[in-house]
Write a structure and sequence with these properties.
Elements: E1 2-4, H1 10-23, H2 28-33, H3 35-38, H4 42-47, E2 49-55, E3 58-68, E4 72-74, E5 77-79, E6 82-90, H5 99-113, E7 118-122, H6 128-133, E8 137-143, E9 150-157
Parallel strand pairs: 6-7
Antiparallel strand pairs: 1-2, 2-3, 3-6, 4-5, 7-9, 8-9
Amino acid sequence: MIRSATERDASTLTNISHASKRYWNYPQEYIAIWKDELTITPQYINDHQVFVYEHDAAILAYYSLVELKADITVVGARLKMGFWLDHMFVDPISIGKGIGRLLFTHLLNHCQVHKISKVRILADPHSRGFYDKMGCIYKGEQPSTIANRTTPLYTLDINGKAGVDIGPNP
């Protein structure tokens, strides 16, 4: 089941964020640099659209959609105003079970219902294959919060996905 996150979910979502990054064997110094980025607070949940995937009363994954009201610059990258997929993380014990696809389908439906036509994504390099499969368009590399590292920038045209079958759900 996918539902809106509540303030009580904050620490669980933070744990999933950190576990998911560790799954890719990033060095501990990267995890330390990303600490604030990976920490989900009750205020973050109140301020943004955050959805969790829950099975048998356990949260296994989540995503968050953030609306920037103006262009901003972060670590030398210019982020344009509009909607951004800020986080999409699956607990490592559930990676490869189709939960990411379920969340992505929920994201598409949510955006269609709320008349959101485009979502931008700064993706983890390890998730490129996922976003390619979901039909996102690769736009290039953006500076990362890690020195001498970049992160892929994708866009998702919601209107172009209307009625598109992105595959079976588990």
